[in-house]
Every structure is written in C-alpha cells, then in structure tokens.
Amino acid sequence: MMLVLQLGRSLWWLLVSLLASTAAARSRPNFIYIIADDQDYATANPTVMPHLHHHLAQHGTNYTRFYTPMSVCCPSRVGFLRSQHGHSHNVTNVVLPFGGWTRFVAQGYRKDWLPSWLQAAGYATYYTGKLMNGNTVQNWASSPVQGFNRSSLLLDPYTYVYYNASFAVDNEKLVSYPNNYSTDVVRDFGLEYLEQAASSGQPFFVGIAPIGPHAQTANGVFSDPVPAHRHRHLFADEIAPRKASFNPAAASGASYIRDIARLNDTVVDYLDGWYRNRLRALQAVDELVDAVVRKAEHLGVLDNTYIIYTSDNSYTVGEHRRQPGKTTGYEEDIRVPLVVRGPGLAADARNDGVHSNIDLGATIAHAAQAEPSYDLDGRVMDWAAPAAKREAGTATHHLSEFWVSQVGGAVEGKYASLGGKVLSKYRTLRIKEGAQHDYAYTLWCTGERELYDMNVDSVQMDNLLANLTLYSPLNSSVSDAQKLASRLDGLLLNLKACQGSLCRRLWANLFPEGEVTSLQEALDDKWHAYFDALPRVHFDNCRDGYFPAEELPVWRNELVYVNQSLIAA
Ligand SMILES: *[C@@H]1O[C@H](CO)[C@@H](O)[C@H](O)[C@H]1NC(C)=O
Ligand SMILES: *[C@@H]1O[C@H](CO)[C@@H](O)[C@H](O)[C@H]1NC(C)=O
Ligand SMILES: *[C@@H]1O[C@H](CO)[C@@H](O)[C@H](O)[C@H]1NC(C)=O
Ligand SMILES: *[C@@H]1O[C@H](CO)[C@@H](O)[C@H](O)[C@H]1NC(C)=O
Ligand SMILES: *[C@@H]1O[C@H](CO)[C@@H](O)[C@H](O)[C@H]1NC(C)=O
Ligand SMILES: *[C@@H]1O[C@H](CO)[C@@H](O)[C@H](O)[C@H]1NC(C)=O
Ligand SMILES: *[C@@H]1O[C@H](CO)[C@@H](O)[C@H](O)[C@H]1NC(C)=O
Ligand SMILES: *[C@@H]1O[C@H](CO)[C@@H](O)[C@H](O)[C@H]1NC(C)=O
Ligand SMILES: *[C@@H]1O[C@H](CO)[C@@H](O)[C@H](O)[C@H]1NC(C)=O
C-alpha cells in the first residue's frame, strides 16, 4: 500500500513536471529574424519599404539608434550570432586569415553560437540565405554548418549574383537558380521553413537573409545591385540624398576621407544610378517581409512570434565624397535599421536608446531561455524580459571597431580607385545620454581623433578635435572638446578589450563606488584630473588583424577612481 502510494506520488510528480515543462516550451516565443545585406538606416522608411513600415513599424517598435559592432558583413554577423564584440570573437574580416567561415570554424564557434544554444533549449532552428562570407561551393560539404534543423546557405562565389543564387541545401546538395531572383528564392525557402516550424511542435527560430541591397559581385567586380526584373523601372527620378555631407565642397574629417577629391558630375550621376538600384533591390526584400508576415498570420503563430528586421552593416553612397561601400565608423556606415514586433512590444512605438547588433543575439537567447556557455558581451533589450528593463537604462553607448587593411568591397564600383586608401583600423564610441549629450568619438590607427556633436552635426562635418596633433594628451582645461574627449577616451580604454558583463556597464567600471553614473556627472570640473591622467587609447600600427599587444595600454583595475581622502582616513 505504502509502496503503491509512493509510486503514485512520484508518477504524479513526473506527470506534473512533464506538463509544466511542455507548457513552458510551448509558451516560449518564436523568432523570425530577417537580415538584409548592407542596408543603411535611412532607406528603411515608409516610402521605400511600405510593407516593413506597415507590418513591423506600425505593429511594433522602431529602434532609431541601432549600430553594427564592425561595419562589414561577416564580423557583424558573427557579432550577432555570438553576442560578442569583434575584439572578443576575433573574426575580424570577411576573408582568411582573420575572417570568414573558415576562421569562424577554426575558433571553435560552430558548436557554440545562437543556433546551437537555441536547439539545446528545445527550439527548432532554420536558416536561409547568406550566413557569412566564406561559405563556398568548395567547402559546403567538407565544412558543413551545424545548429540548424534545415538550412539553405548561399555560397561564394555566387552569393552576390542576383540571378544564379547557389545554395547548400541541408548540407546535402548544391542547388543553383540561374533563372530566379535571389531574394525571391530566399523568400520561398523562408516560407517553407516557416510552415515546417509552425507544425514542429517546438518553439522556433527562422533566419531569413536575402542579399539585397548588396552590390552585385561576380569575379571580384562590384557593380550596382541588380533589381528583380519587375522592379527595374521604379524610382526613376530618385537621387542619393543631398545631405550636407554629400560630396561636400570642403574636405573635413580624418585623412581617410579628407584626402578624397571632390567628385565631378559624371561620378555623381553614377552614384545616383547606384543608389536607385539599391532602392529597387530593396523592393523584393520588402515583398519578402510582406509574405513572411502574412504567412505567420495564416499559420496562426503571429501572436507568439517576434519578427525582427535589421541589416548587418550600413552603407555610404557619396557621403564625405566616398564611393559606395562601408567599413568606417561614420554614422552612414554603422547605423542600421531595427524594427521588431512581437509579444510585449508596443505598437507604432519608437525607441531612441543606443543598441548594438550584439545586443540582439543576447536578447533572443534570453527570451528563449537558452543557456550560452559564456557570459555574453551583448545587453538584453527591454522587450525580452521585465528584468531587462533595468539594464535598458544603460542603453546609452555602443562600440564599433575595425582592424582591416585589406578588404574586398571596402570601396565598390567603377570609380573605386577614387575612394581613398584602404586603411581602416579604428575604434568608435557612440554615446547618447538624454537629449543633451549625443557624441561620436573615434580614434584611428594613425593617431587621428574625431569628435562630433551629433545634436548639431549629425552628418559629421565639423570635427571638434581637428587641430590636435597625433596621439596628443588631452587636457580638459583647454577646451570643451578636449574635456569631452578625455571622458570618452577613458570609456573607450575601458571598453576596448571588455568581456561579458563589463561590456554592458559603463560608468560603474570606472567608478565602482558610484561617484559618477553618467556623462553629465563626469563632465564636472572635479573629475578633470582623473580623466586627464588616464592612459590614452593607442594603436602601434595599422596592419591587418587584431593583436592586443600592439594596442597597449589596456584597461587595468588599478585605473578605477579611488577617493584618496577615504584611503587617508
Ligand atoms: C523609424 O523611425 C524613423 C525616425 O522617426 C523614421 O525616419 C523611419 O522612417 C521609421 N522606419 C519605419 C520603417 O517606419
Ligand atoms: C551558376 O552557379 C553554378 C554553381 O552553383 C555554376 O556552376 C554555374 O556556372 C553558374 N552559372 C552562371 C551563368 O554563372
Ligand atoms: C523560379 O522561377 C520559376 C518561374 O517563374 C517558378 O516557377 C519557380 O517557382 C521559381 N522557383 C523558386 C525557388 O523561386
Ligand atoms: C531539430 O533538431 C534537434 C537537434 O537535432 C532535434 O532534437 C529536434 O527534434 C529537431 N526538430 C525538428 C522539428 O526537426
Ligand atoms: C570625372 O571623373 C572621372 C574619374 O576621375 C573621370 O574618369 C572623368 O573623365 C571625369 N569627367 C569629367 C567630365 O571631367
Ligand atoms: C582649427 O584651427 C583652425 C586654424 O587655426 C581654426 O580656424 C579652427 O577653428 C580650428 N578648429 C577647431 C575645431 O578648433
Ligand atoms: C592644461 O592646460 C592648462 C590651461 O592651459 C595648463 O595650465 C595646464 O598646465 C595644462 N595641464 C597639463 C597637464 O598640461
Ligand atoms: C586574434 O587573432 C590574432 C591572429 O590569429 C591573434 O594573434 C590574437 O592574439 C587574437 N586576439 C585575441 C584577443 O585573442
Ligand atoms: C571623498 O571622500 C570624502 C570623505 O568622505 C568626501 O568628503 C569627498 O566629497 C569625496 N570626494 C569625491 C570626489 O567624491
């Protein structure tokens, strides 16, 4: 009798906990992650992308200060998939020796990234389109992707060939579509996965990564993005926006852009044509968004699914006299669209907090109750959990980094040779605090510094540190610009090699006792001596790759602020 009772009890408990765990699994949200390629922030607007605006922005939240941690495809995507800064994952380029899929695998990441965490947490995972650079027609079988239940990955050298998309399908076969438009094929794979996911009985993640509006790239030549035939006549009267930074009469900024000559009308016409083709290539991406949202609605999963729309990095067409491309820390290269709808997100809302692509990986992992094997650099965004709302208060800063001196596609198109030297090693800190403070601070590997007050100079034409000598010390008593720079350089020194929770905090790393909790407080005169005495961020050289020993000094604990009178007492 006793035995039967005990047995009954444990069976009962087993049943209860089984039910509870399946209920928990069922109530966990799904994710549809749509990532465009090289789309800048400004083109994600209601005119160019009406479906994105209607389905996602009007039913969700539009993040207006969302940034890429490295302004080039593969390093940014790895940043998302590992929720880490470039200096943490160290996949810093699109090609070997420092980047691409082979480097990603060599770092041991193929078994330890968002899809594998999600699968371990009970999710069914799917991915179609561009994963990262270096998935090729040669290596897809010998170096297969892991972590996805189904996958169809675009393969180099055909990744950016709009009419011959070539995929590794489920690591089993290579399929190419010479007569179909790449974005449409990716859409169709995505819709198929969505159907399977919805009937899988598991919560799911579906990644959909079209190449639009990336440049068409064949045989190493970058040319205009190719629109779908049905869109090629649209936007006939559009020209690249004539911001104050578009092909300006006066050169400014760091030597990287200051040395670029002003463009003549022939070249400007060419840039306008390129820009139009970007808008046209985005039409199929917008249709994809429409098809995906309708399918999710039809399948009855819309209410418990986060639909996320973003891009890997941003893009310039003519700003600062530049040729089409990315890779710098200027706003036109690092600011990307992010629009999210789903459970708990307000409709038709806007969020001006500063967020990074690495935060998105952390947020999805958190909302899925997945368990990464290490402390993520990224912050959990406010939509994922009530507890995360506290951390959202710290959504004031972003770090962009770069360590590439040779990169295919840094400067694209027929006039690439006008685009300046390909020297690109820098760190950029973006910080926005309330309405008052909004700055972009950059240190280049040349020792040049740039500081822009984004509230009055959002196009970054007036470098407040233009007259400093290379790597000069900073003296807060000399000017407001140096006062600001001494604070921002101190924060950068702290963040530039941060890992895990240290990356998610800002002021507490410098002031563990809480004497300073904001930029506003840090600007007080009484902190001049502390900030001016900090060692300054430095690069020994501009060579390719991230070598920490060539970027000393690095932050050390002895640099925190210590109140000397407390020690004396
Ligand atoms: C997001 O908000 C910004 C700023 O208001 C706006 O310019 C942009 O068009 C919005 N994006 C969408 C997709 O509605
Ligand atoms: C299309 O891609 C396949 C590889 O998937 C390749 O063998 C073929 O030559 C390509 N066709 C064209 C016209 O480039
Ligand atoms: C490719 O295009 C053909 C002809 O329009 C169409 O029948 C087919 O469904 C398309 N395939 C994919 C995968 O989009
Ligand atoms: C997805 O893959 C995981 C790991 O192999 C497996 O446990 C799960 O059953 C799969 N789900 C579906 C829907 O195929
Ligand atoms: C404009 O500049 C381009 C690139 O330097 C050059 O090839 C072209 O001849 C110039 N056109 C005119 C009209 O000067
Ligand atoms: C830099 O020096 C030039 C020439 O003396 C001066 O006109 C300019 O205002 C200075 N710029 C800044 C940001 O201090
Ligand atoms: C900073 O500038 C002030 C005012 O010009 C000067 O008195 C002071 O000596 C400078 N400090 C350093 C460390 O150079
Ligand atoms: C990044 O990779 C380079 C080259 O493999 C290596 O020398 C360097 O130590 C790595 N950096 C970190 C922080 O691991
Ligand atoms: C340092 O501590 C003393 C004694 O508590 C206090 O009066 C002083 O304000 C503190 N200084 C700073 C800069 O916080």
Structural summary, described in words:
This protein is an alpha/beta fold. 31% of the residues lie in helices and 18% in strands. It has helices at residues 2-27, 50-57, 73-82, 86-89, 101-106, 114-120, 182-198, 255-258, 265-298, 331-334, 357-367, 388-392, 480-495, 501-504, 507-510, 519-522, 528-533, 564-568; strands at 30-36, 61-67, 124-129, 150-154, 165-169, 173-177, 204-209, 216-218, 221-223, 305-311, 335-341, 349-356, 397-404, 424-433, 437-444, 449-453. A hairpin with a 4-residue loop joins strand 15 and strand 16 (449-453). It binds 2-acetamido-2-deoxy-beta-D-glucopyranose (9 copies). Residues 119, 124, 149, 200, 202 line the site of one 2-acetamido-2-deoxy-beta-D-glucopyranose.
Question: What's the SSE blueprint?
Answer:
Blueprint: H1 2-27, E1 30-36, H2 50-57, E2 61-67, H3 73-82, H4 86-89, H5 101-106, H6 114-120, E3 124-129, E4 150-154, E5 165-169, E6 173-177, H7 182-198, E7 204-209, E8 216-218, E9 221-223, H8 255-258, H9 265-298, E10 305-311, H10 331-334, E11 335-341, E12 349-356, H11 357-367, H12 388-392, E13 397-404, E14 424-433, E15 437-444, E16 449-453, H13 480-495, H14 501-504, H15 507-510, H16 519-522, H17 528-533, H18 564-568
Parallel strand pairs: 1-7, 1-10, 2-12, 3-4, 3-7
Antiparallel strand pairs: 2-11, 4-5, 5-6, 8-9, 10-11, 13-14, 14-15, 15-16
Helix pairs in contact: 2-9, 3-11, 7-9
The structure holds 2-acetamido-2-deoxy-beta-D-glucopyranose (9 copies).
